[in-house]
Amino acid sequence: MTSSTPALDTPRPVGSVPRAVLLDMDGTLVDTEDFWWDAEVEVFGALGHVLAEEHREVVVGGPMTRSAGYLIEVTGADITLDEVRDLLNAAFLRRLDQGVPLMPGARRLLTELAAHRVPTALVSASHREVIDRTLRSLGAEFFATTVAGDELARTKPHPDPYLTAALRLGAEPAHCVAVEDTATGVASAEAAGCRVLAVPSVAAIPPAAGRTVVDSLESVDLAFLRGLVTGPPPRPTPGPAGGGMAESCS
């Protein structure tokens, strides 16, 4: 699957807002955050280590390299980062192959955006293989472009994924709404200069300037998203320094 093939042939109305909607995948559109945690519990359990719930709050939404490295450190597991990464990916993919449930309101929102020809991007730090498998349940036709973490030098919380998506759609980030469920994803979108709609899946996310927080996508429609981009545009915030491997659990 290509990552930039338009899903819709009909041009969007001139002057429409938001210019684009950029959506995270895991925990935002599909209910897979438990899949990642279950995979981590399984892998480290096989190594003889029990993961505590407090560890989950640290690793949720983060790049896999960071999450796996943290779990190796806190458990003292005798395994390399490359080895545990491969085990986590395999465990997660097994769960994807059993079917991916959508988050409440996700299908309705995507259908409405498509009906109104609003350019939409899927922006995930997960690998292309994970995205393409998930799109079988989610629907590739809803997205004009998809951005995978392993296709970029830096993934979330850096701004690169959202800057890439906005560029592909020909939209200024300040005129885009990014929809995220974790603090890591919110940091990425805000660093890119997007308006952010946070729908927390595991850990709470507080409201802030340029950021709106809701409990569920069931309360979100196009009119709601339009209201998020009618005020003064947010100023991009500096992204985290340094690079990182583009692998993720979000």
From TrEMBL:
Region (Disordered): 229-250
Biased composition (Gly residues): 240-250
InterPro entries in UniProt: HAD-like_sf (IPR036412), HAD-SF_hydro_IA (IPR006439), HAD_2 (IPR041492), HAD_sf (IPR023214), PGP-like_dom2 (IPR023198)
NCBIfam families, per the entry: HAD-SF-IA-v3
UniProt protein name: HAD family phosphatase
Native source organism of the sequence: Streptomyces triticirhizae
Lineage of the species this protein comes from: Bacteria, Bacillati, Actinomycetota, Actinomycetes, Kitasatosporales
